[in-house]
Amino acid sequence: MDEQALRDLVTLWQNRLGLDHWEVVVKFAEPELDGRTCVMKVDRSHYYDHATITVHPAAIGKGELPASIERDILDQASDHTAFYERTIVHELLHCCLRDLMEAGELVGDQLHRDVRAVWDEAWRRAEEATVERLAKALILLPKGV
Ligand SMILES: [Zn+2]
To answer: Which among 42, 49, 83, 116 could bridge 91 via Cys, Cβ 3.0 to 4.6 Å?
Structure first.
């Protein structure tokens, strides 16, 4: 997949998910989550309809992913393009859940710190599982415009 094809997928899914009014910036760099290189990540604004998706350059054929990630991709999808499209949907779904997650943060702010740690972990896990479940389902839908 070349850079334009990836950007087109972001725009396509941004529109499908009702995020057409969002400013979504795509940048190519080595994204890290919890100190580990990953394929893609999103940083969304807490308040504004703005997000930056950081995409590993390997997605557009520049550079190489760590071997462990490469194997993981091949285990999950028959081709890389399908994997990257699902990952784009995943990252954009994080934007769709922004207001819900922010509401959860407000609730968390009211909790004792011991309970807060449990709440934060459970809340993040629930978001991640929901986003991944929805991304897998949405990507299987017929490709209408
Ligand atoms: Zn995620």
So the answer is: 42
Residue 144 lies in a domain: no
Residue 52 lies in a domain: yes
Q: Is residue 120 part of a domain?
A: yes
pLDDT digits (tens, 9 = 90+) for 93-142: 999 999 999 999 999 999 999 999 999 999 999 999 999 999 999 999 88
CA torsion 70-74-76-79 (nearest 10°) is 110
- Range of 92's domain? 3-139
Token pair of 34 as six digits: 């919890």
For residue 85, the Cα-to-chain-centroid distance in whole angstroms is 10
The pLDDT, as a whole number, for residue 6 is 97
Distance 87 CA to ligand 1 centre (A): 8
CA of residue 27 to ligand 1 center, whole Å = 17
Query: Which residues touch 125 (CB under 8 Å, ≥6 apart)?
Result: none
Ligand 1 centroid from CA 94, angstroms? 7
Q: Is residue 145 part of a domain?
A: no
Question: Looking at the 3D structure of the chain, how many domains does it have?
Answer: 1
Read off the pLDDT band of 65 (50, 70, 90).
confident
